[in-house]
Structure formats: C-alpha cells, structure tokens
C-alpha cells in the first residue's frame, strides 16, 4: 500500500500541474499580446487592433478564472499531498512562494481594473498603462514559482544538520544554479505559446469564414510575435541544455540515451531502445550532443554510467525531449514561411495549406509546454529535492489519496469542458464584424479586402 | 518582538481580512441565488454583480496568502495539518474551484443559468463550513499521531458539538456580514428597493450570529479549558465586540449610517477574532505545534517579514486605487459607468 500512496500522490500532482500549466501559460503570455495590440491600436489610431485587444481580453478572463482556481489547488496540494516535503523544504522555499502570492495579488487587482475601465478615461494611454502591472505581475509569478522548481533541481543556500536544513540563506536558494536558464526558458516559451495559439485561432477563423482586414492584421501581428519569441526560446533552450550538462548531467543523458561518457557525442532523435540499452531506428546527428552541451563538437559529455542505476531518471523522457525540441523548430519555420509568403507579391499567404499549418502550430505549442514540463519533472526522478529527498519520503501517508485523485479528475474534466463551451459561446454570439460596427461606427462597412 | 510573533500576527490579520471579504462574497452568492428563486433577482442581482465582478479574484488571494504564509512561517503545520486535512482541504479546493470558475463562466461568458447560480450560492455556504474545520482541528483532540503517522479522527470530529457550532457560526456570520455590506452598498447606490431587501436580511441574520457565537464559546469551554480560560482573561475584547454589535444593529434598525454600521460589524468581528486568536497562543495546533518551537529558521523568518513589508507597500496603494475606482466611486456604484 505504501507504494500505491506514493504513485497516487504523483499522479494527482501531475494531473493538477498538467491542467494548471495550460492556463498558467495563457495567464503569463496573453496579457503581453493584449497590451501590444492595444498599444498599436492607440498609436496608429487603428480600431482593428483595439478591438483585437478587447476580444482577446474577453476570452482571457475566462481562462484566468480557471488558472486562478487550479493555481489555488496546486498551492494547497503542495502541503496536503507532500506534507513531509513542505515541512522540510518550507524552511528554504517559502520566500519565493510568498513573493509569488504578492505578484499574483498585484496582477489580480489590476486585472479587475483593466477589465472594467475600457471607456472610462479620456486619455486612452491610461487604460493601456493598467495592462503593464498585469504583465509584470504574471511574469513575476512565473519567475518566483520557477525559482522554487529550480531549487528542487539544484538545491542551494543551506547546510544539513541532523537531517534537517540549517543555516538557510533564502536569497541563495532562490538564485540557485538552475534559476537563470529555467526562468528564461519558461517566460520565453510562454510568450511563444500564446502568440502561436492566438495565431492559430485567427487562422482558424479565416479558414472557416473569410479573410477580413481584422483577421489579416491579427494574423500578421501574432505570427510576427511567434517568430520573434520562437527564436528567443531556441536560445533559451540551448542555454538550458548547457546548464544541464554542467549541473544535472543525468537529466540530459537520460534525454539523449547517452550511457557512456565520451567525447564528440552524437545527438539521437527518436528511435527506441533494445534490451541491451542500445538505440535502434534512431536519427543520429554526429557530435551534435557535444555541441549542444558544451558548444564544442569534441567536448566530453558525461553519460548515465556516472550515475548509480537507482538514481536514473526513466528513459522514456527521451521522447518528451525530442517532441519538445521538434515542435520548437516547427513553430518558427511556419511563422517564417508565412512572413516570406506575405512579402512575395505573387503568392497568397492566406492559402489553405498555410492556414492549416498555422492552426496546427497552436495546439502543438501547448503540447510542447506539456512535454517540456514532463521532461523537466520526470528527468529529476527519483528525487523531489535532488540529492536530498526522494518523492517516496515526501508523499502523504493518508490512505484517501486515491479517492482524491478521482475527485480532482472529475473536477478538471468539468472545468475544461465548460471553459471550452463558454469560450465558444462568447465568440460565436458576438462576431468581430458586428462588434466593430457597434463600437467604432466610423469604420467603413464592408471592408473585406 | 520576535519574528514568529510578527509572523503569526500578520497571518492572523490576513485571515481576518479574508473573513470579511470572503464573507461578503460568499454571502452575496447565496443572496443572489435566493433572490433568483424568490423572483426578486431583478432587485439585487445587478447590485451584487457590480460589486463582485472586479474583486472576486482579490478575495481569493487573501486565502492563498494565508496558507502560503502559515506554511512559510511554520513549516511544521504542513506536516500535521497537511496530512490531516487532505480530505476536507481537497473538498474545500474543489468547492472553491467550482465557485470561482463558474462565476467567470456565468458573468463573463454571457450565459444565464440557474444551475450555475445555484452552485455559486450553495458553494458559498459550504466553503466556510469546510474551511472552518481547520479552526476546529486547531483546538486539539481531533488529530492523532501514532508511529509517525498523522490521522484525522473523523468520528470525534463529526460527533463533536464544538465542530458543528463552529460550522454554524461560520455560515450565519457569512450571511450577516454580507447582508450588512450589501446594505451599505445599496444605500450608496441609492437603490432603495434593493436596500430594503438586504437590510431585512442583515437584521434577520444578526440573531443567529450572536447565538452561534455564544454556543461556540460554551462548547469551547468544555473542549479546551486552557483556551477558554485565556479568552476569559481577554473579557474586555469580547465586551467591545458585543458593544459594536449593538451599535450596528441599532443603526441598521434605524435605517441610517449604513457605512458606520458595517464598520461596527467589522470591529465586532475584529475584537472577537483577535480575542479568540490571542487566547489560542502559544499553540497553532494544541498540543503538537506551538508558535515558538515550530517557527522557521530566523533568516527565513526575517526574509519573510521584509518581503511582507515590501509587498504591502505595493499592495496597499493598489487596493486603494481599486476601491476608489469601484467601491467608492458613486457613479460606478450607481451603474453609470
């Protein structure tokens, strides 16, 4: 029964986090997109962009609500499901947790203000200014909570005395070795994903209805942002790999099925493992792992053999890593293709094939977030605090955890379904064209160019 | 003053803040549902929605703040309360999740559904009931630790008159505080039909609120004599609490100065809540967790206090701005903006 409790605790947490990060990602990234659209709208005196900001906001509120309630759930579950972990680690990580709540508080206050003051100020920039605290609050929530996760990967800022943490330095714990690359990667990929999702929704609307000036402008803006953030995310991913090679070599080695320490290590894509732990059917890029890990094609990369077997992460994380990276290359490629097509006069960038690719990139971006997190979390197994506490030692001893798992499963199914139903209803009952006429009657009717 | 005393005082203040803002929110949800069932929704629901929409998320943060803070300052609480509260805590999370998200689905999603309103109203009363379990547990006697395993004694909990009287107190207080606030808000909006309705709610719920407070005190004296005795030493706080209650009822009855009536109710609960809390000292969980033994390391405690001050410098101006824009903006309250 002992093992079952641990497994159910892990599943419950994985499910809650897996559900929450969808909405958390939207919560971090979408406000930036809204703010950019509103700013362009005010600067260019272009009602299309301002309508874009309004409509995105309307959808955003609904996802925020789910993000808030699931965030509350994960916050409480940390103590309910992992009481032994919080008892020990609470001494070291409560500062960033506390600060995260402050950032969230800040965001919540200004989100309320932003939502209910659209036409309240004569100077339109005042309303736009209220979007900045939302972006800052959302961004800093992500930063603080990521430092907690970084701490669990590379614990720092304490000494161990009699089995408990002593001489705690909260700031050192927050600024542990994993923090810079993790924060960079989390933020850039959240912005990328939101840009890609908004682009996908726009492309879907064009496919379903027709090309109007409103959707064209939206598509161009979102794909430009997708491209920019995809490039930044690629840089972030590269620095994350170099961090892993230096500080968490077993995680990188598990992702790459790199068993023996060697120089000039190859990069493996996909394939599968036979019983002798040899990769079959893989795509092999010679010496590229060394380059990824150390920026030098002949550098030595530590293999899994350096880590005792019982501390190996599960080897299936390889697929998570590969899928994440593959999508990471697919997204900028699609965005770039669109941008090139739109520059070529003879080509129509709104053809079916192009639009379908864009529609596809939205869900793929969110999947990449999920794959990336699964890789990051499973790659640290069997540790909850790497090197100090395993997940088995941290889980609750309560026998009711299995029941709780199914209760929460039901909750997330209901929330997820109703969220989609509500979002569809919001937009279907209120098409952009009608709203544009209502809000900005000065815009010429029938602008369908 | 030591950092753990500062810590627990700050947390208690936040819990009190949550008690007030959440009561307004929870009670309003119930009244909105009640008004719909009794076909009076056209009278009050507009009023309720205008107040709740911009602030519901802020209400939620007060709660998150408290539980993150208590685990931060007193990590031992995670071990005992975390293990024992798995089931009641999870139920509270689920209720909060249903409530928060359904509010958004209904109000921002342009869907008017009686089912949503019902769930919104019902959870508003169940959440205080499930959260108040934590207060009951803190009195001791419901959590057992044997061979390093912490377990909650459900039978004792469900058969204890103390736990039921705390649940009753939580629910009627929610309705009383909320109705008093809505009276104030309706008076500001000069919405007289709504005012008449919510004022009656406030007067009606005042009696059970004071009765539940008395019964809780009696059952507490039987369950935890130490706590009861130290509360008796603070008799003047409870005297002030009763005094403010009388002022509030008189003002509500006379139908004037609703703002002062609501402030009196806030003070009534402030003194009662702090009298209760100070009487609890030095235990966070009788007898397992005491404030001084379970506090986090000093460096972390100081860092938390500094973070707290920095956070307040950011939050207080923002909250004032929020209130000026919505709560105390006469045109907004009247529905003109």
From TrEMBL, chain A:
One of its GO terms (cellular component) is cytochrome complex. Keywords: Cell membrane, Electron transport, Heme, Iron, Membrane, Metal-binding, Transmembrane, Transmembrane helix, Transport. One of its GO terms (molecular function) is oxidoreductase activity, acting on diphenols and related substances as donors, oxygen as acceptor. It is a multi-pass membrane protein. One of its GO terms (biological process) is aerobic electron transport chain. It comes from the Bacteria. The chain crosses the membrane at residues 20-40, 60-81, 93-116, 128-152, 183-206, 218-237, 316-341, 353-376, 401-423. Pfam families: Cyt_bd_oxida_I. The keyword NAD does not apply. Belongs to the cytochrome ubiquinol oxidase subunit 1 family. PANTHER family: CYTOCHROME BD MENAQUINOL OXIDASE SUBUNIT I-RELATED, CYTOCHROME D UBIQUINOL OXIDASE. This is Cytochrome ubiquinol oxidase subunit I. It comes from Lentibacillus salicampi.
């Amino acid at each position: 029964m002992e093992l079952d409790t641990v497994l159910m605790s892990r599943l419950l947490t994985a499910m809650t986090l897996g559900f929450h990060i969808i909405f958390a990602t939207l919560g971090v990234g979408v406000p930036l997109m809204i703010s950019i659209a509103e700013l362009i709208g005010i600067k260019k005196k272009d009602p299309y962009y301002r309508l874009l900001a309004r409509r995105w906001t309307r959808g955003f509120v609904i996802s925020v609500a789910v993000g808030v309630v699931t965030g509350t759930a994960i916050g409480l579950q940390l103590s309910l499901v992992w009481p032994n972990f919080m008892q020990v680690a609470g001494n070291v990580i409560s500062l960033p947790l506390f600060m995260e709540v402050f950032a969230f508080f800040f965001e919540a206050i200004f989100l309320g203000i932003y939502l209910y003051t659209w036409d309240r100020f004569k100077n339109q920039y005042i309303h736009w200014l209220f979007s900045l605290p939302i972006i800052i609050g959302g961004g800093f929530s992500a930063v603080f909570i990521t430092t907690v996760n970084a701490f669990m990967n590379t614990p720092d800022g304490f000494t161990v005395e009699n089995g408990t943490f002593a001489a705690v330095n909260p700031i050192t714990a927050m600024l542990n070795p994993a923090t810079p690359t993790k924060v960079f990667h989390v933020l850039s990929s959240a912005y990328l994903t939101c840009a890609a999702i908004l682009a996908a929704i726009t492309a879907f609307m064009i496919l379903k209805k027709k090309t109007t000036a409103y959707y064209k402008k939206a598509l161009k803006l979102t794909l430009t942002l997708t491209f920019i953030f995809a490039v930044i995310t690629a840089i972030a991913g590269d620095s994350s790999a170099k961090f892993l090679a230096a500080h968490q070599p077993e995680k990188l080695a598990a992702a790459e099925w790199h068993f023996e320490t060697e120089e000039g290590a190859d990069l493996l894509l996909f394939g599968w493992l036979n019983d002798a732990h040899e990769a079959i059917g893989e795509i092999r890029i010679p010496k590229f792992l060394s380059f990824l890990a150390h920026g030098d094609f002949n550098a030595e990369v530590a293999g899994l053999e350096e880590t005792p077997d019982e501390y190996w992460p599960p080897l299936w994380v390889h697929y998570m890593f590969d899928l994440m990276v593959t999508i990471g290359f697919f997204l900028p490629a699609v965005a770039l293709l669109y941008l090139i097509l739109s520059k070529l006069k003879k080509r129509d960038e709104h053809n079916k094939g192009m639009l379908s690719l864009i529609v596809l990139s939205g869900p793929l971006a969110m999947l990449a977030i999920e794959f990336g997190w699964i890789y990051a979390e499973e790659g640290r197994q069997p540790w909850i605090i790497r090197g100090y506490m395993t997940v088995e030692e941290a889980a609750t001893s309560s026998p009711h955890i299995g029941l709780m798992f199914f209760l929460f499963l039901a909750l997330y199914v209901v929330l997820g379904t109703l969220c989609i139903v509500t979002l569809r209803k919001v937009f279907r009952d209120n098409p952009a064209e009608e709203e544009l006429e209502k809000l900005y009657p000065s815009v010429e009717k029938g602008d369908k160019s | 003053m030591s950092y753990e005393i500062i810590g627990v005082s700050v947390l208690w203040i936040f819990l009190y803040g949550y008690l007030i803002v959440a009561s307004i929110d929870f009670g309003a949800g119930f009244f909105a549902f009640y008004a719909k069932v009794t076909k009076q929704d056209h009278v009050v629901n507009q009023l309720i929605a205008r107040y709740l929409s911009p602030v519901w998320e802020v209400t939620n943060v007060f709660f998150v703040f408290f539980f993150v803070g208590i685990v931060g300052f007193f990590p031992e609480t995670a071990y005992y309360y975390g293990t024992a509260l798995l089931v009641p805590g999870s139920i509270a999370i689920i209720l909060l999740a249903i409530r928060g998200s359904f509010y958004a689905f209904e109000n921002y999603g342009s869907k008017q559904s009686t089912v949503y309103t019902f769930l919104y109203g019902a959870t508003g009363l169940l959440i205080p009931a499930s959260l108040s379990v934590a207060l009951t547990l803190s009195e001791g006697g419901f959590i057992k630790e044997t061979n390093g395993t912490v377990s909650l004694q459900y039978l004792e909990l469900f058969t204890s008159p103390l736990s039921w009287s705390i649940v009753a107190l939580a629910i009627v207080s929610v309705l009383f505080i909320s109705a008093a606030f809505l009276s104030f808000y309706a008076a500001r909006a000069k919405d007289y039909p709504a005012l008449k309705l919510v004022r009656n709610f406030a007067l009606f719920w005042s009696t059970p609120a004071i009765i539940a407070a008395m019964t809780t005190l009696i059952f507490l004296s039987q369950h935890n004599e130490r706590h009861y005795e130290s509360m008796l030493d603070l008799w003047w706080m409870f005297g002030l609490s009763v005094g403010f209650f009388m002022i509030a009822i008189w003002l509500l009855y006379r139908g004037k100065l609703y703002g002062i009536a609501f402030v009196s109710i806030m003070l009534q609960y402030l003194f009662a809540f702090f009298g209760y809390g100070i009487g609890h000292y030095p235990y966070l969980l009788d007898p397992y967790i005491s404030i001084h033994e379970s506090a986090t390391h000093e460096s972390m405690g100081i860092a938390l206090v500094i973070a707290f001050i920095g956070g307040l410098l950011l939050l207080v101006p923002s909250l004032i701005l929020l209130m000026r824009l919505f709560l105390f903006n006469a045109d907004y309250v009247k529905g003109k903006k």
